[in-house]
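Example 246.
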Amino acid sequence: MYRIERVKSGIKGFDDLIEGGFPRGTTVLVTGPTGSGKTTFGVQFVYSGAALYDEPGVIVTLEERASDLRREMLAFGWDLEKYERERKIAIVDGVSTVVGLPSEEQYVLEGNLNTEDFLRYIYRVVKALNAKRLVIDSIPSIAFRLKKEEEVRSVLLQLNTILLEMGVTSILTTEAPDPARGRISRYGVEEYIARGLILLDFVEREVELKRYLLIRKMRETKHSMKKYPFEITEEGIVVYPSGELY
Ligand SMILES: Nc1ncnc2c1ncn2[C@@H]1O[C@H](COP(=O)(O)OP(=O)(O)OP(=O)(O)O)[C@@H](O)[C@H]1O
Ligand SMILES: [Mg+2]
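Predicted structure in complex with magnesium ion:
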């Protein structure tokens, strides 16, 4: 019987929910409101690849500068720089030039990029590292940079084709403006393009917000539609597969 190769996410408690990991080469959209853990999820996936599974990875950061991301992630004990020196991780800084700051990064996205240049650059970095994992954080920040934001749909289609061709397992992040009312992505097209969709969100319980994770879609995978509680701990995201949301 043909068995799909699974890629371990490195997110504690999560892989058991998706038959052991993401299907290799798939593209997964991680969506949620602000502060829900999207960046952490994506970086944890790439960091774990380098640190635990001998899979190089690329982080394209379009919302915060590479230097800020490195510092933030150190709080989880993830020393990205160590793996960058070993060429197991590359961080593409897509912020500095846009905000007009000088960048001393090795991988820098120029400010006024057209779609082709953007895609080509990512392709090159993935090939340079022979990367198996990729995170792009985030889709809306690609779209904001386009001359016409309506072009986001065609950009996403192209991006998706290139990612599938490279065989890299990818996480794209986007915003969910109002998950409760079904608005789970910024442009309403991202979820159709991605082969998997994970929602990170909050529910109100008494006087506190509780985090939960929902696998809305994962092609080639049997998964439940339950909302699983998770926490962001000092070791990153931990999902509780048998936990209840009360
Ligand atoms: N070291 C830490 N230990 C525990 N929780 C943390 C730590 N660092 C951040 N957090 C929690 O994670 C949240 C931020 O997560 P993250 O940046 O991954 O979210 P996001 O969905 O990417 O947000 P944004 O919309 O701002 O991009 C913080 O608001 C905080 O609650
Ligand atoms: Mg973020």
